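This part of the workshop introduces the protein records we will be handling. As an example, a complete record with its sequence and its structure tokens follows.
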Amino acid sequence: MSVYRSADAVRTYYVYNAAWSFLAALSFTLSAVYYVRDAGLNPLQMVLVGTTLELACFLFEIPTGIVADLYSRRLSIIIGFALIGAGFLLQGLVPAFLAILAAQVLWGVGFTFTSGADQAWITDEIGTERAAPVFVRAQQFELGGRIVGIVSAGALGLISLPLPMAISGAGMILLALMLAVFMREQNFHRTPKHERETFRQMAETFKSGLDAARRRPVVRTLVIISLISGLASEAFDRLWSVKILNFSFPTVFGTSDPAFWFTVLALVGTLLSLFTSLVLNRLSPDRLSATHPTGILATLAMLQVVGICSFALLGNLWLALAAMWLNTVAGTLAYPIESAWLNRHVDSKSRATVISMVSQANAIGQVVGGPPLGALGRASLRAALLASGLIWLPIPALYLKLRATNARRGGPPALTNPAPADGSPLISTGEAAPERD
């Protein structure tokens, strides 16, 4: 079989990233419409779908990582795409709550098989020196694949809402089979036992993160902020679509089908993300690399509060969408600034531990906060969305409090390991996995 696994590693990485992004967009673009219209899910069930996915990802991150460390990155990726495909296919073929929950488990476990394994695989194959530009180029392929997937989902959804999901699932399984034939792995070496991730290491990571949080005000504050954002975000991420579906859509090009409009909304969201990223790159380097960018982060967090609360209260479709996009733009701008800030205030030897701690706090917040707000949404959708915004309200105050603390202390000591001068994001302080909804 090894004779067939001769495809260039970089080309393979580009192709499967584009294919993954295309197939994921094909499945996700209209999934919320499908949950409400075809499967008949209520607000609590919508949130439980997301909570199940987050919980599956959280619980299986370690055991699935052992496969990539012990046996093969390539094998882990292939297993992951096969499971993701099975989850997408089940979700599209069986419009029932329990089947959709089972699909989330399949797709969540599948994602943990691919999480980290893909970047580790390409880095092993081409070396660390070539990896950085390859990652940047792969993001461009992902964006192109996502846009094509969104448009394709809209076209197929006008025929049948489950159709793009079923095609996505079948395509993902086909992708796994193609990788089994063409994906090569020539430089894999098993991770030494003392370097492998285990549940004991997860507990130690959590303990080390708590120690770092006690010693460093910036880390402590960002852990709390990550927990609060997790508590607030799961319900909003799942329930905004329920509110949008309550509006009557205008007729454009002879159709007012929600499949068409949700495709448009997804495209606008993608373009807004791209635009805000370009704006961020043009901001002054001193603003991005400020020792404590608390002022801009507090402002952006307050804009998110305004966006979420306004979305909850507004009864006009276009005003509600404007509020939702305000939240999107503010979050997109804040993400890399906060990421770089955290990196500047963590020693190199403890960086991975602290980053993991921040991500774990966000995941815990989503799992804990989602179901109660979902239950509230079953009684009053507006109340649940408004509660999400109110939960977010302490975040701007936490940023400003930290700013006041630093001012009283006369500023922090000089730091080692500063972030790049261009403000490039180094880590993720948000969700543990991309595009899970």
In short: Residues 198-437 form a domain with the Growth Hormone; Chain: A; fold (CATH 1.20.1250.20). The mean pLDDT is 78. The first helix runs from residue 9 to 28. The chain has two domains: 1-183, 198-437.
